[in-house]
Design a protein that fits this description.
This protein is an alpha/beta fold and 195 residues long. The chain has one domain: Vaccinia Virus protein VP39 (Rossmann fold, 3-Layer(aba) Sandwich). The protein has 8 helices and 7 strands; from the N terminus they run αααβαβαβαβαβαββ. β6 and β7 form a beta hairpin.
Length: 195
């Protein structure tokens, strides 16, 4: 088992290279493309988006429409890039920030590639349901035992949790770890809020 460091330290460490990693074909990062396809299928063209674990704000590069973005991330260095993309930013842990956000305060809530760092994904998704007015789009990474033991940040496998109200729920080949070269399957989940 490798020595673990904090998620903040880990993501701060490669914030400057993050966008290039997402675009590099050898890492096969597909969850952002897939999220965009799902979101577009439901004809969402405007509103405000809460992007939890927003990183550098690359979600805004994938969605077409008139959206205002607010991003939560633990990495201050990642958030500097998100702010340059027009994001309002919240520098905090997902667990701390989400509890302070009012119910039904965002049209859409995204959480892509971030729940693997959260121990209690079910509580996190329930907060997303509380916050979203229209829909929620999350990705759940199937982190293998090899990945969990070798990656330098604490991570969890939430890929099999039950989500009863999902409209779309399927696996894709999500990404390949840039540090370990391990391919990770990603479960894409789209939930619409009941009016």
């Amino acid at each position: 088992m490798s020595k673990k460091i904090s998620a903040e330290e880990f993501y701060d460490g490669f914030a400057a290279q993050y966008d290039n990693l997402l675009k590099d074909p050898k890492y096969s990062v597909q969850h952002l493309n897939e999220a965009s396809k799902i979101f577009n299928r439901y004809n969402h063209v405007q509103g405000n988006i809460l992007d939890i674990g927003c990183g550098t704000g690359t979600l805004s590069e994938f969605l077409q429409g008139d959206f205002q973005y607010t991003g939560i991330d633990i990495s201050d260095k990642m958030l500097k890039y998100a702010a340059q993309r027009g994001y309002k930013i919240i520098h905090n842990t997902m667990e701390t920030a989400r509890a302070k956000i009012d119910s039904h305060s965002y049209d859409f809530v995204f959480c892509l590639g971030s729940l693997l760092c959260v121990k209690d994904a079910i509580t996190a998704i329930n907060h997303m349901r509380r916050i979203a007015r229209q829909s929620i789009l999350v990705s759940l990474d199937e982190t293998t035992a090899e990945y969990i033991s070798n990656v330098i940040v604490p991570v969890y496998d939430h890929s099999q949790i039950a989500i009863e109200d999902a409209i779309e729920d399927y696996f894709i080949v999500g990404w390949t770890s840039p540090t370990l070269r391990i391919s990770i399957r990603t479960r894409m989940v789209y939930i619409e809020r009941k009016s």
